[in-house]
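Quick one - inputs below.
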Amino acid sequence: MSSYHLDHLQFLETEAIHVMREVAAEFERPSILFSGGKDSICLLRLAEKAFRPADIPMPFLSIDTGHQFPELNEFRDRRAKELGGKLIIRHVEDAIKSGKAVPRPGEISRNQLQTPTLLEAIEEFRFDCCIGGGRRDEEKARAKERFFSPRDTFGQWDPKNQRPEIWNLYNSRLNPGENMRVFPISNWTEMDVWEYIRQEELEVPTIYFSHRRQCVRRNGQWLPVSDLLPLKPKEEVKELVVRVRTIGDIISTGMVESPADSVDDIIAEIAAARVTERGSRADDKASEAAMEDRKRAGYF
Amino acid sequence: MPTHHPVEILRFNTCGSVDDGKSTLIGRLLYDSKNLMEDQLEALERSADITGGGQINLANLTDGLRDERAQGITIDVAYRYFATPKRKFIVADTPGHVQYTRNMVTGASTANLSIVLVDARLGVIEQSRRHTYIAALLGIPHIVIAVNKMDLVDWSEDRFLEIRDEFEAFLPRLDVLRDVKFVPLSALHGDNVVEPSKHMSWYQGPNLLGHLETVHIASDWNLSALRFPVQWVNRPNNPTDPALHDFRGLSGQVAGGIVQKGQKVIVLPGGLKTTVKDIWTYDGSVREAFCPQSVTLCLEHDIDISRGDMIVGFDNLPGLSSDLHAKICWMHPRPLQQGKKYFLKHTTQTVQAFVTSIESRIDVGTFEPQPEPDELKMNDIGIIRVKTAKPLVFDGYNTNRLTGSFILVEQGSNATVGAGMFLPPTETVKPDFTDFAI
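Output:
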């Protein structure tokens, strides 16, 4: 490669930094969604690259389902502290108590309930923009998402009425009541994320690496046994060597059997993988348009 | 197969009419280059059972939204990612309907390469001319004319040459097209997509993927004239490091050329001269930076600089004017109106602007300009004069896609309504050449 040419990670990085700086320059009250997952870990490194030596000029927002992996929360809190950032945590539990989030009869997963909790947090802090770690390669509906995605008062995404996004000229203008979702790593693949984690030597929560865990087989997936996931009759618990590939809440995240205990191993595993990342998320399997429906309703 | 070593990214888009087989072609590229995963294949098979009478439909891979699956058309730009050991690819699948030209402009604006699909049975139709014209208008450096459905014309070399002649009859009128390749293929059967064709031994050129993997893209960015639009002023509030007490950095993406430590620069539109003291990055100070890297510049003098200012070198100066001449593609159902105020976003600044005249509308069928139309409607391309509330530092789009482009945003609705490309400046800025003095 010639000295005046960027390799793929450098290209994706400069694009993402550009987007983050646009947000800092054009919005009054932006925030960064930070779950502690691998995509948002990259977002925070990109924020450092975009804004250092100054402080990162926006708080980190985390929507806690109350069904989180404890390892994830521990990491999230520690990482935010290391960066000297302000971490705002809002709980689905509280949104349920106040009646803002209402579970459907029999519904135990809280993925759906993150949406009202997020919208309430946006209102509480009057955020005009939330930066998220969504990637277009995750899912077909995400493949049509823009970098700058305006949402109406209800947080809804209208895929048929998206603003054309041309060159690197992002239209950040909003009307009162609207807010923007911005996805700086839109163009990154799962592989790019891990390669970036390796290049930047970023720490990730331990659940991404191989460990022994009690699992139960349900709907073609190995789900982690926990207090939140009561066993059904005749279900058998098995101790397996597993890791997570993508993190949802603890009752719907499929564990994959894997001996990968380093970032290099994970990269090798993805290179040889035969299913996509979201193949291990029960919430996306509900129907072919599962993600589209959740996004229309204000999901990230 | 995904890669795990540094490679280049090639961005391309596909364009063609409805039923030219764009989505099938992308599906074929992903399928034959082993970039599909089991759950994607499973989902394909599931949908084949429901809608396709058992036949796997490669187009289902890219037609992501429910309405599209139901109507069998692609309604918006969808992005796809795949990799081979040689390159990574970002694909913008852009729809072919007449009313969706704006999506093609969107998908093509960042592309290194455009694939224009043509149905071998139909040859060049208005849409082919329109798509080729738009690719040329957007200054896409590389074009592939993919003559698809060769299976339906008995793999005929004569038919292929005929279509090539039809294109070559008008290509010279699109002056900016530099690199055009013709590839005969069948997306449905996979001939010349990833695998060579058993049916067209008369074709000696590369197959489509082979071309995508090897086409030279290293010089697609402008590296000749320094342009650095200031995006964000970096001033640490309470730095713990005393060395940073006086830090004042100008963050941004190099939009053209190369910037070096010690280089003398001019800050426009003010015209003050100074020197680049340091090029700061999170990974340490660097000696030089080039387009499109994102860096933070520290200057010798503490000049009042803010977002929207442009730092340039002494050579190849840009234009500076508030009376601008541009081509525009209109993207909104409400037509472009003369005299109406819009927001104009150019590099890192947004100013108020209005269109003082619509000089012509270009007929994309004949490429002939029609003088002085009353308005430009959705999907129209025209030449306009714009007056901005503040002078802009700009280049002709043909020399720099980043400093030569702008968007118009409608006030009130905030819709992005136009994609504009400046014509080359008639004269360049003439700053007073006095050294900066405190």
